[in-house]
């Protein structure tokens, strides 16, 4: 009986499931952090934007804040840790936040920043230079370390 059932399964052609007509692909949008930065940058409040106002702005933009509370909280904390946002009031993911002035100026004028010239190599003291020259010898022959130390001190005197 089981053999007949298995045989019937093997003879039935494989038919793929019809594609669901209501299926909609996920829309590609900005990440939570980018949405938060956008909302805070648009705010003209002197003391920054409170978390409640920030959540209202995200909800008005079509983001489901109630469903993604934890993501909003971690995004705020990470933006403060990176230095993109500055916390004006409160601690953690509560209080008020505004844009960091340093990142605003960098974002506005990236071409204004000039490449710095590499600093000139600092001159080593003669003792350090002699020790660096004799270092491979000291590593290859450990019993010769005292001889290397004596040689370094005699070169520097």
Helices and strands, with pairings:
Blueprint lengths: L1 H10 L20 H11 L6 E2 H10 L8 H14 L2 E5 L6 E4 L1 H8 L17 H15 L4 H12 L1
Descriptive report:
This protein has 157 residues and is mainly alpha-helical. It contains 7 helices and 3 strands, in the order H-H-E-H-H-E-E-H-H-H. The protein has helices spanning 2-11, 32-42, 51-60, 69-82, 101-108, 126-140, 145-156, and strands spanning 49-50, 85-89, 96-99. Helix 2 packs across helix 4 and helix 6 runs antiparallel to helix 7. The N and C termini lie far apart (101 Å).
Assign the CATH topology of the domain at 32-108. Arc Repressor Mutant, subunit A
Count up the helices. Answer: 7
The first-level CATH class of the domain at 32-108 is given as: Mainly Alpha
Question: Percentage of helical residues?
Answer: 40-55%
Q: By CATH's scheme, which homologous superfamily of the domain at 32-108 applies?
A: Winged helix-like DNA-binding domain superfamily/Winged helix DNA-binding domain
Radius of gyration: 33 Å
Mean pLDDT, nearest integer? Answer: 74
Low-confidence stretches: none
Q: Kindly report the spatial arrangement of strands forming the biggest sheet.
A: 1-3-2
The fraction of residues in strands falls at 5-15%
Oligomer designation: single chain
Q: Tell me the structural class.
A: mainly alpha
Task: Report the count of strand segments.
Answer: 3
Spatial gap, N to C terminus: 101 Å
GO molecular function: double-stranded DNA binding; nucleosomal DNA binding; structural constituent of chromatin
Family: Belongs to the histone H1/H5 family.
Protein name: Histone H1
Keywords: Acetylation, Chromosome, DNA-binding, Nucleus
């Amino acid at each position: 009986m089981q053999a007949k059932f298995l045989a019937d399964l093997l003879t039935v052609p494989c038919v793929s499931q019809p594609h669901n007509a209501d299926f909609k692909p996920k829309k590609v949008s900005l990440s939570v952090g980018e949405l938060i930065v956008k909302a805070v940058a648009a705010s003209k409040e002197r003391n920054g934007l409170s978390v409640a106002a920030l959540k209202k702005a995200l909800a008005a933009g079509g983001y489901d804040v109630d469903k993604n509370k934890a993501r909003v909280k971690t995004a705020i904390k990470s933006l403060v840790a990176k230095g993109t946002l500055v916390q004006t009031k409160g601690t953690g993911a509560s209080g008020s936040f505004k844009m960091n002035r340093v990142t605003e100026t960098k974002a506005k004028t990236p071409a204004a920043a000039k490449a710095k010239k590499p600093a000139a190599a600092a001159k080593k003291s003669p003792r350090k230079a002699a020790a660096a020259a004799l270092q491979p010898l000291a590593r290859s022959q450990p019993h010769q370390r005292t001889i290397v130390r004596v040689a370094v001190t005699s070169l520097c005197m």
